[in-house]
């Protein structure tokens, strides 16, 4: 494949940045994916209803508003052709609001937060932060949800001046998670007490969502960087954005599915919530969502329990999650023989302790797919003396008994509020995943 930044390659990267800009939370990410799926002719299934499927059907199903599985039913017999699956995750590490977030402190209205996953906390300081997520509402006798987003700076985490933290450049910025992370929002003099401030905040949410404040019961909200994604570098060969980990993989999986036509095997993508906190939830990869959908698809196509197990054995799962690119300023952080270069192709991620699902057989299988797509491929292994992160790969592979491989695009500053990656790599990954879903 040419390494030139052609118009289609630039367009794919621009579409990725637009997708991330529209998706400040896992709930928004699923909504963004659904919008694209519907335009492409996919229709929704509901877990509470009976499913009736046939070859060529394009369907999707949502769980908990933040996880999504979409698929095209293959033309082949399900027991013989199996599934071709790409999995990714919709969540990113950061700051989540507590249920009783608003409180007054020394003349300022602050919002209490919890740390979600493993963000680089220092990168959240001095950024233009908005709030986004979903609201749970009373609608007659029902509880419904509504997305909400403040796309202009609403809160801030001001840094402590160097005059009061003289060692910050030598020791690094360290933030106490309980005392020093509450977000500053407004002048406290405008409120009589904390209850008054809480009522104001609830009214702010209701106004933004276009609902009556009396309907609002609870929320799932997070702070996010309102700065739009951008290209950078002399040839605009890099991108910078929030949530590249792992919305870039979600976008690549979605783009690949939308490019897939008349597959023999059933082509499926699974975008899970809660990977950053261990995946053990009803909406996470550690829950039953994937197994439930595969079983129901198989049953709807006439497969019995024996045929369903045959289908799993003939399937292939690709866990797509971002990988650590070589940063030459920090050579001691990397395994010397596994330095991933940006814009040199997706990486196959391996770990002897099964932090990744890759085996030599599944690595070879992905290499063959990359060769078919004319895509370069790299291999990654973590330093032996550093703890290795994990993915949904081992979790899904273990629960389904399915051959699996972990792959991902190289990126810099993983878990920063502003991450960077390569324009070419995203195009390479889409091409490789498209070959996988069509195989």
Question: Please, could you describe this protein's structure?
Answer:
The chain has two domains: 7-92 and 242-438, Zn peptidases (Aminopeptidase, 3-Layer(aba) Sandwich), CATH 3.40.630; 94-225, Aminopeptidase i, Domain 2, CATH 2.30.250.10. It is 29% helix and 26% strand. The chain is built from eleven helices and 20 strands. A nine-stranded mixed β-sheet has the order 1-2-3-13-4-14-18-16-17, with helices on both faces. The longest helix has 16 residues, at 194-209. The mean pLDDT is 96.
Q: What's the gist of this structure?
A:
The chain is an alpha/beta fold. It is built from eleven helices and 20 strands. The chain starts with 6 loop residues before the first helix and ends with a helix.
- By CATH, the superfamily of the largest domain comes out as Zn peptidases
Number of helices: 11
Broad structural category: alpha/beta
The oligomeric status of these chains comes to: single chain
- The figure for the number of domains is 2
Total number of strands:
20
The span between the termini is 19 Å
Low-confidence stretches: none
Beta-strand percentage?
A: 25-35%
Shape: globular
Question: CATH topology of the largest domain, anyone?
Answer: Aminopeptidase
Instruction: Determine the mean pLDDT.
Output: 96
CATH architectural grouping of the largest domain: 3-Layer(aba) Sandwich
CATH class category name of the largest domain:
Alpha Beta
Helical coverage, percent range: 25-40%
Main sheet summary: 9 strands, mixed
